Amino acid sequence: MTSKHIHIIRGNDQFSVELHIQNIVTHLGADFDTSMNLARMDGKQTSHDDLSLAVTSLPFFGSNRLVIVANANALLEKKQQEKTTRVLESTPETTHLVLIVEDRTRWRKDERNNWQSYWDILNPDHWLINWADARDNVEILDSPLPEERKMPDWVMKEAKRQGGQISQDAAVELSRHTGCETSIASQEIAKLLMYVNYERAVSVDDVIECVSVEGSADTFKMLDHLMGGQKKEAQAMMHQLLEDAQPEMILGAVAHRFRQIIQVREALDNGGDVSALVKSRVIFNNQAGAFSQAARRYPMPRLKEIFARLLEMDVQNKMWDDTSSLDEIQVDLKTNLEMLVMEL
């Protein structure tokens, strides 16, 4: 296991952040038990005293503890430097402390007038970077969202990480659908690799065949707004999507998301553990928190009502066409979808 036990993850790619955390957990060894020795904290709501207690506590029935601090930016302000430094320096080797710092890369010209990429917050001038550079037990892990022009390369590497291959042309085509949304792209790659049964490289035709509007970045963003209760944003995106895509495809995406939310709600009602859904790939690990939060917004009876409504909309849409009489037509699917967003 690495001697580095303080891990600073900087970036704005949540998918990459989760991969770094999974890698850290893997290196903690077989005796690491997440139920006993994992603590997740929010830097916006955690005091230095609580954080100190978490990192200095001894492991239970194992050799290591893992403390993950999301929104760690709140602990890195200049006025917090002394307190945060004290906590960092008091962290024993038996505790792996992960600080997740929301950051992004920007471009600027150096003294030679060449464009250089730099981190907006945790750049070489930040006190935490200087503190980390002087210590052997600290590592800095970068998780920036890929630039649009580099996304095809990211897709090819991710396909290889998942045990398969994708052609460069197919990677370009997939990137056109997903944009820089790496978590969406990863899910689509998994689907494509299963489609070709990992026996050959994914082709452009495979992408066109398998990646529907459900896999588009805009659709996922609309669904995220919908699940998060951001009705105004969801309405605007739904209207825009319905201008460019078949409503049947949008309906399928919404139904799929609510099916996932229902399964998460069932898991929460039966003890609160959604890890089985992650293992069975109903949801991905980086979705667990957001999906759990969305599921808690709705009681199970309400979720079943919504899903029944979606099924009714599907049946109604298939029962009439342009030749149907006015008294046979209730509401067209586009209108039904926009009304659904307003009701949620």
Descriptive report:
By secondary structure, the chain is α/β, with parallel strands linked by helices. The protein folds into 3 domains: 138 residues, 3-Layer(aba) Sandwich (Rossmann fold); 64 residues, Helicase, Ruva Protein, domain 3 (Orthogonal Bundle); 127 residues, Up-down Bundle (Zinc Finger, Delta Prime, domain 3). Helix 4 links the parallel strand 3 and strand 4. Helix 3 packs parallel to helix 4, helix 6 packs across helix 8 and helix 12 runs antiparallel to helix 15. The protein starts with 5 loop residues before the first strand and ends with a helix.
Mean pLDDT: 86
Instruction: Tell me the radius of gyration.
Output: 23 Å
Q: Label the CATH architecture of the largest domain.
A: 3-Layer(aba) Sandwich
Q: How many H/I helical runs? A: 16
Terminal CA distance:
48 Å
Order of SSEs: EHHEHEHEEEHEHHHHHHHHHHH
Percentage of residues in DSSP E strands: 5-15%
Please give the number of β-strands: 7
Identify the CATH class of the largest domain. Answer: Alpha Beta
CATH superfamily of the largest domain: P-loop containing nucleotide triphosphate hydrolases
The main β sheet shows up as: 5 strands, parallel
Class from secondary-structure proportions = alpha/beta
CATH topology of the largest domain: Rossmann fold
**Biggest sheet: strand arrangement:** 2-3-4-1-7
Characterize the overall form. Answer: globular
State the share of residues found in helices, binned by percent.
40-55%
Low-pLDDT residue spans: 324-330
